[in-house]
Amino acid sequence: MNDRADVTKSVTGLGDCSVRIVDRDRVAIVAAAMPAESDVAELADIFGLLADPGRLRVLVALLEGEMCVCDLAAVAGASESAVSHHLRLLRAHRVVHVRRKGRMAYYRLADAHVRMLLDVALTHIGHAPAAAHPEHGPTVENTHE
């Protein structure tokens, strides 16, 4: 068996006659570059964390630098309890880090990758406003077209 056949057989469904492949070489290259299932699951968890508006407000606030729970709660318009819960989840997934000083805890984004992910997402919505999204229905701007 050649290498290409090995790669295509290792991809779920490629040996099944119900899967149609137009460019077998391309499929083999992409399949070989696909991350491990555990990495994909971890990435899905991260995106799931980012799907909560409360957690996103906390993360966007942290783009400006390190903050304590009290200040994050004030900025995010949430209770300290809710913000603490968000931060606990974000810490568990290595999205934020904590620094303790006495009884105070100061949080910051874990690394430049988290900052870049948020920056890219914020830039994206600047170029694709929610009002133009078909799932959000007509707005004043696009009802007069």
Task: Explain how this protein is built.
- This protein has 145 residues and is mainly alpha-helical.
- Helices cover 57% and strands 10% of the residues.
- It has helices at residues 3-10, 24-33, 37-50, 53-62, 69-76, 80-92, 112-127, 140-143, and strands at residues 67-68, 96-101, 104-109.
- It has a three-stranded antiparallel β-sheet.
- The protein is elongated.
Output the helix-strand order: HHHHEHHEEHH
Assign an overall shape: elongated
- Output the radius of gyration: 22 Å
Strand order of the largest sheet: 1-3-2
Roughly what is the average pLDDT, rounded to an integer? 83
Taking the alpha carbons of the first and last residues, their distance comes to 59 Å
Number of contiguous helices: 8
Largest beta-sheet characterization: 3 strands, antiparallel
Helix content bin = 55-70%
